[in-house]
Structures are given as C-alpha cells and as structure tokens.
Specification:
about 210 residues, alpha/beta, Rossmann fold, 7-stranded mixed sheet, two-stranded antiparallel sheet, 8 helices, 11 strands
Length: about 210
C-alpha cells in the first residue's frame, strides 16, 4: 500500500499543506494515486495552525508507517520545529526510505535541519530567501518550485499547489496531473493586483514577468 504523509505542527501555514492536500486527495480518490494519505504529527492532539485553523492528525510519529512520500509545510512554527529533534529526526528517518520528500515555503528549513538540503538546489518563501542563503550549503533558486533529485521545494504558501501538480505529473504523467487540475479547476488568472510584486525583495520568477 502506497502512503503519502503530510506533516503538521503548531504554527504551520494552512495553505502550505491544504493546497497540496486537495491536489493529493483528488489524485488519490479519483485518478489512482496513493492508496493512503495521512496527516502526521508528533502527538495525537489538535494542531493549531498559523492563522488559527485547528486540524486533527491521523497518526503520531511513533505509529506512522513507512512513507512513500512526505510533504513538510512551512509557517511561523518552523522557527521552533527546526530545533525539535523529535520532528527533524522523524523527517530524516522517513526520508531515508521515501521515494520523494517535498517542502513548501519555510518547510525547506525543516528539510535542512533534517540534513536533506545540503549541497542541493532549493527555494523557499521570498521573505526567507536570504536566510536560506545564509545557511551556506544550499544553492538557492528563485523559482516557483525546484526539484533536485528526490527532494522538491516550493516558494511560499500557494506555490505548494503548483509543486504538487508538477510532482503528480512527474510521478503519474501529464494526463493524470491534467485530470487533477481539471477536477480542482485550478487555472490561475495571469493577473497582478497593485504593485506589491514590484518590490525589490520579490523573487526572480516574479521580477522576470512583464
């Protein structure tokens, strides 16, 4: 039985995992994707996310089966979780046998703390790009998402949806990813509101657009 795990922890950014979760579950339920999808937390208690949403995990670290794939979200909570040996150890152990590990937003710092980004290309939320560079052993790429072998990283928040669709396409083909995309009706308008994206700290993939 193939199993996809999505890590959750206090302070996780909601859309970091809910966006990918939607694409994942459509793939799983309707297009013969992973047979089991689990929200995984350190303990079996409600998780309070960055914007106040409470979610209930399916399984705790101690009872989690081997995962074929693992996704790690970002959010304010990562600043604490990078020093949580129980969490980073869990990620490292699961990654050792997993087919792929993915992160969204500042989940990349959890991957780094678990020893998974050293010498790799990766990205993160635009507000943390310099912090990722400062680690000194990651090649930071300012793209919507980046794949380096079995490790995938995405930029901030909504970028996790694009990451998951690209991941599904890599695992199951463009036709399957297209069916997931169509079911979810995920076809973002190519429209910008206001001038915020023109800020000097905007990532290169935004600055490159007209």
């Amino acid at each position: 039985m193939t199993t996809f795990g999505v890590l959750v922890f206090d302070g996780a950014e909601e859309l970091d995992f809910i966006g990918p979760w939607e694409m994942l579950r459509v793939w799983s339920k309707y297009v013969k994707g992973p047979e089991r999808c689990l929200l995984v937390a350190e303990a079996m208690r409600p998780i309070v996310c960055a914007k106040g949403l409470s979610v209930n995990p399916d399984v705790a670290f101690a009872d989690c089966p081997p995962l074929d794939w693992l996704l790690v979200p970002g959010g304010e909570g990562t600043r604490h979780e990078v020093d949580n040996i129980a969490l980073t150890g869990f990620v490292a152990r699961q990654a050792a046998a997993a087919r792929a590990v993915l992160s969204v937003c500042t989940g990349s710092f959890v991957l780094h703390a678990a020893g998974l980004l050293i010498g790799r290309r990766a990205t993160t939320h635009w507000g943390s790009l310099d912090r990722l560079r400062a680690l000194g052993d990651v090649e930071v790429v300012e793209e919507r998402f980046v794949r380096d072998g079995e490790v995938w990283t995405a930029a901030g928040v909504s970028a996790g949806i694009d990451l998951m669709l690209a991941f599904i396409a890599a695992e199951a083909g463009d036709e399957v990813a297209g069916k997931v995309q169509f079911y979810a009706e995920y076809y973002p308008l190519d429209r910008r509101y206001g001038t915020a994206a023109d800020a000097a700290e905007a990532p290169a993939y935004l600055r490159a657009k007209p």
